[in-house]
Amino acid sequence: MAEEKLLTVNVVTPDGSVYDEKTPMAVFKTTVGELGILPEHIPLLASLEIDEVRVKVPGTEDKFDEIAVNGGFVEFSNNIATVVANSAERKENIDLARAERARKRAQERLEKARQEQNIDKQRRAEISLRRALNRLNISKH
C-alpha cells in the first residue's frame, strides 16, 4: 500500500501556535469561497473569513480537527499551509459559556448601535457577533 501523502497545517496567532499537524487535506473558508488544499497544491495566498479551518485526521475516512479562526489569511507553499489570524481556538479548547456570554454582549451592542444609528459601532458589533457565533457553532459540532 502506498504511503499517504501529507501536508503540514500551522495556525498561528500573536499569542503563539494554536495548531501544528500533518494532514492529507485541509479546508479553508476564504473571502471568495471554500478552498480545499491537498499535498503538492500550487502556492497560494488567500484572505480568510471568520469561520472554521477543517483539517482531516490522517488514516480516517471522515474525521476532522476543527479550528475557529477569526479572519486572517492562509499561505500555502512547499507543502505547508500557514494560517495567520488575530485569534484562533481548537474546537476542544472553546469555552462554551464564555462564547455564549460574548454572543449576548455582541447582540446587545449591535442593538444599541442600531438604535443610535452608529454605522461604525454596528459593524464592530456585527463582527463580534460573527466571531461568537463561529465559536459556538464549532463547539457544538
What does this structure look like?
- The protein is α+β, with helices and mostly antiparallel strands and 141 residues long.
- The protein has two domains: 7-91, ATP Synthase, domain 1 (Sandwich), CATH 2.60.15; 94-139.
- The chain has helices spanning 96-116, 119-139; strands at 7-13, 16-23, 26-30, 33-37, 44-47, 50-56, 64-70, 73-77, 80-84, 88-90.
- The protein has a five-stranded mixed β-sheet, with no helix packed on it. The chain has a five-stranded antiparallel β-sheet with strand order 4-3-6-7-10.
- A hairpin with a 7-residue loop joins strand 6 (50-56) and strand 7 (64-70).
- Helix 1 runs antiparallel to helix 2 (119-139).
- The longest helix is centred in the C-terminal third of the chain and has 21 residues, at 96-116.
- It is elongated.
- The chain starts with 6 loop residues before the first strand and ends with a helix.
Mean pLDDT: 93
Strand order of the largest sheet: 2-1-9-8-5
Second rung of CATH, namely the architecture of the largest domain: Sandwich
- Could you list the spans in which at least 5 consecutive residues all have pLDDT below 50? none
CATH superfamily of the largest domain: F0F1 ATP synthase delta/epsilon subunit, N-terminal
- What about the largest sheet? 5 strands, mixed
| CATH domain class of the largest domain | Mainly Beta
* End-to-end C-alpha gap: 33 Å
Helix content: 25-40%
GO molecular function, one term: proton-transporting ATP synthase activity, rotational mechanism
Domain ATP synthase epsilon subunit C-terminal: 92-139
Subunit structure: F-type ATPases have 2 components, CF(1) - the catalytic core - and CF(0) - the membrane proton channel. CF(1) has five subunits: alpha(3), beta(3), gamma(1), delta(1), epsilon(1). CF(0) has three main subunits: a, b and c.
Pfam families: ATP-synt_DE, ATP-synt_DE_N
